[in-house]
Amino acid sequence: MTTARDLERLALDAVAAAEAAAIAAYRLVGRGDKEAADQAAVDALRTGLNAMAMRGRIVIGEGERDEAPMLYIGEEVGTGEGPEIDIALDPLEGTSLTAKGMSNALAVVSFAARGGLLYAPDTYMDKIAVGPGLPDGVIDLDKSPSENVRAIAAARGVATEDVTVCVLERERHEGIVADIRSVGARIMMIPDGDVAGVIATTDPSTGIDMYVGQGGAPEGVLAATALRCVGGQMQARLFFRNDDERGRAAKAGITDLDRKYDLSELASSDCLFVATGVTSGALVEGVDVAAGEVATETLLMQSSGSIVRRVQTVRPL
After folding, report:
1. pLDDT band of 69, cuts 50, 70, 90
2. Per-residue pLDDT at 172 exceeds 70
3. DSSP result, the chain
4. 255 Cβ partners below 8 Å, 6+ apart?
5. CA torsion 295→28→280→95, rounded to 10°?
6. pTM of whole model > 0.90?
7. Average pLDDT over residues 236-251
8. Which residue from 9, 105, 139, 166 puts its CA 20 to 30 A from 126's CA?
9. Are 219 and 138 in contact (CB under 8 A)?
10. Per-residue pLDDT for 130 more than 80?
11. Pairwise CA distance, residues 101 & 278, whole Å
12. Are 78 and 235 contacting, i.e. CB atoms less than 8 angstroms apart?
């Protein structure tokens, strides 16, 4: 049985794997080729994962086996010895951000005991999330964004004008934006990278109180592992645009297509979350190359003990 101690033993190797992916992607920052940047990160992360002493299985990855040659859902990674681990990953969260040389691109990977992560299909997901320090049940996916803003403001003892909400900048979110602004709350729009948007609620220095909107279901599970590490709250529901996506859900073993998941269902066991900056953003600094050295910064979270570390690494170029 995989324990919290098993995950802790993997922490430094997990950081090394994410660092390698970030450095590989960094070489393609601003070069306009998001596919090449993503592939570079995939190759480097896969090499790092295969060096880890575990029996790893990808449950959230680059896609199905016929869509992704590496780090596909169901792929086994690691040395084949050690604890059984389920892995959720996004080797390059923010491929467009990287290609355009924009901020907040990350290499992200999460680890949990076998069966500890929701096996989410590659569909959309409606999400709402807040960080730690708020009463249980303060948010509800079935309520309007403005109602959730009011609930957060009341819990914090502040005006709604003092609440800041992060929303992915998409046409489909115009109604959400209008509803939030109807109560005077601030909105921070992000062009891509909703994993980073959710995680921003965990760090008071970002000023983000809530994340709300529709994004990828795999990214939702990744973000949930970070929230579990620090005690935040999250609710989510799968959203299907067509029968093909409903078929993906059935293939993943999901029978209740309207289920509202909470954090304990998205990430049901102890987790280890790792995110290394590719380009600098609100959470971590990006890769920096100077004077023959390459520096990285990684956010490392452990649910056991609610531990958050920032790992800064400098190595010869």
Report:
1. confident
2. yes
3. ---HHHHHHHHHHHHHHHHHHHHHHHTTTTSS-HHHHHHHHHHHHHHHHHTSSSEEEEEESSS-TTT-SSS-TT-EES-S-S-EEEEEEEEEE-HHHHHHT-S--EEEEEEEETT-B----SSEEEEEEE-SSS-TT---TTS-HHHHHHHHHHHHTS-GGG-EEEEE--GGGHHHHHHHHTTT-EEEEESS-HHHHHHGGG-GGG---EEEEEEEHHHHHHHHHHHHHHT-EEEEEEE-SSHHHHHHHHHTT---TT--EEHHHHB-S-EEEEEEESS--SSS---EEETTEEEEEEEEEETTTTEEEEEEEEEE-
4. none
5. -140
6. yes
7. 88
8. 105
9. no
10. yes
11. 10
12. no
Mean of pLDDT values over 100-112:
96
> Structure tokens of 233?
């709250």
Task: Say if residues 163 and 134 touch (Cβ distance below 8 Å).
Answer: no
Residue whose entry in the numeric block shows the structure tokens 């949990």: 112
CA distance 74 to 35: 22
Alpha-carbon distance of 195 to 123, in angstroms, equals 15
C-alpha distances (whole Å) from 139 to each of 172, 173, 184 are 21, 18, 18
Q: Which domains does the chain have, with CATH numbers?
A: 4-116+270-316 (3.30.540.10), 124-265 (3.40.190.90)
Structure tokens at 275: 């995110």
Retrieve residue 228's tokens.
Answer: 């579990």
Give the CB-side neighbour count of residue 77, counting CA atoms within 13 A: 30
Categorise residue 30: left if φ over 0, alpha if ψ from -120 to 50, beta otherwise.
Answer: left
Residue 31 and residue 47: Cα distance in Å, rounded?
Answer: 24
